[in-house]
């Protein structure tokens, strides 16, 4: 990255965003973070003791073009937004507001500031029940409002690229994991659920028979891809991002080492997610560096981070996912 470049990371106190901040600091950047702390934590940035990181506790939907936080910004990495499937089914308006209108607000601020590149954190959930390995030109078929909102945010990015000439790239993340993943809120990502269960010495709640596989990618490898997408001269590109090496939930449980209880399979969930990463490798020279086994080892070494996470059991999960089954069963 150019010397003394200014990078803005929305959602930079969150899971992947904080790893992005780490990399940008290593590259000698001045980093500004916007985060309303609904999912992020100030502690995720506490290890940066220099003046190179500033955190603005604000909602992206309330920031207008010309705001001082965008002054002089060279690169924008847009991770802010609402995640998780079940709450999106229950509160679709909030998701459309945060993930679509919030993105539009950031695009317009970036356009006004004349940034060199805007990199959008998209979701592979836009593909729905996809053929694997999944290419970027796969049919789009969102199964729930979260997926729809992230896809529409991406569409807004490319509209700003076509109409206003804003240099944009989008990365469709498959299954990111690592230290600092979210510890509060709704029932969601498997790592957060399992790590708290391990801490509490409770059984892992495995959906189905555990044979389903996910294209897990460690968070620092995700940050590397976003950095390269900002540095390239290419713009207007979509990249799938995963390790390209799906791992079963059964194998994850073996690595975490604990007892298991099985739950009913959920509608609208694929048996396998698997990114075809040939495009990002060819265009950007990106490749994953952290093996799944090494990544799990790092997460377990930092397991105390999940002390405050909710402890899920079969009954609480059944209650939390009732809307999911009611809305998507037979869809």
Strands of the largest sheet, in order across it?
Answer: 3-2-1-4-5-6-11
Main sheet specs:
7 strands, parallel
CATH class of the largest domain: Alpha Beta
* Number of self-contained structural domains: 2
Tell me roughly what share of residues is in helical segments.
25-40%
The CATH homologous superfamily of the largest domain: NAD(P)-binding Rossmann-like Domain
Output the keywords.
11 helices, 7-stranded parallel sheet, two-stranded parallel sheet, UDP-galactose 4-epimerase, domain 1, 331 residues
What can you see in these coordinates?
- By secondary structure, this protein is an alpha/beta fold.
- It has two domains: 6-176 and 216-241, NAD(P)-binding Rossmann-like Domain (Rossmann fold, 3-Layer(aba) Sandwich), CATH 3.40.50; 180-214 and 245-272 and 292-328, UDP-galactose 4-epimerase, domain 1 (Alpha-Beta Complex).
- The protein contains eleven helices and 13 strands.
- The strands form four sheets. Strands 3-2-1-4-5-6-11 form a seven-stranded parallel beta sheet, sandwiched between helices.
- The longest helix has 22 residues, at 92-113.
- The mean pLDDT is 94.
Summarize the structure.
By secondary structure, the chain is α/β, with parallel strands linked by helices. The chain has 2 domains: 6-176 and 216-241, 3-Layer(aba) Sandwich (Rossmann fold); 180-214 and 245-272 and 292-328, UDP-galactose 4-epimerase, domain 1 (Alpha-Beta Complex), CATH 3.90.25.10.
